[in-house]
């Protein structure tokens, strides 16, 4: 599948699904995440997330979904089971290891690695599921 043959609907849907998953993940675990960072959340709920990091996150989700789609096609892993398995192995081999190294050198709490790692596992699984279900 050349890059020009990308299913843009599947790509956009998987990127948005990953972004939404992340929003729900950190809305649920926001206080624990802030504590793992050693920060305290704002006292009022009126502050909204900054625009630039949100745009960076959405762009990163799009790139991640694009690369995942390319890999799933090339691995012939477009069934739901195969796509989820591939996403799990990609997370284990690249994402979790990267987070573990970075957080270890930053002397971050293990809970930060668990929260962030869980987020990226969920993102990859959601994106793989959407890509496999929408198909090419």
Q: What layout of secondary structure does this protein have?
A:
Elements: H1 8-37, H2 51-74, H3 80-105, H4 110-134
The pLDDT mean sits at: 92
Shape: globular
Number of strands: 0
Radius of gyration: 16 Å
Q: Give the biggest sheet.
A: none
Q: Gap between N and C termini, in Å?
A: 9 Å
Class by SSE composition: mainly alpha
Helix run count: 4
Proportion of residues in β-strands: under 5%
Low-confidence stretches: none
String of helices and strands: HHHH
Task: Note down, in words, how this protein is organized.
It is a single chain. The mean pLDDT is 92. The chain is mainly α and 136 residues long. It is globular. It contains 4 helices and no strands. 21% of the residues are buried.
Provide a brief overview of the structure.
By secondary structure, the protein is mainly α. 77% of the residues lie in helices and 0% in strands.
Task: Please give a handful of descriptors for the protein shown.
single chain, mainly alpha, 77% helix
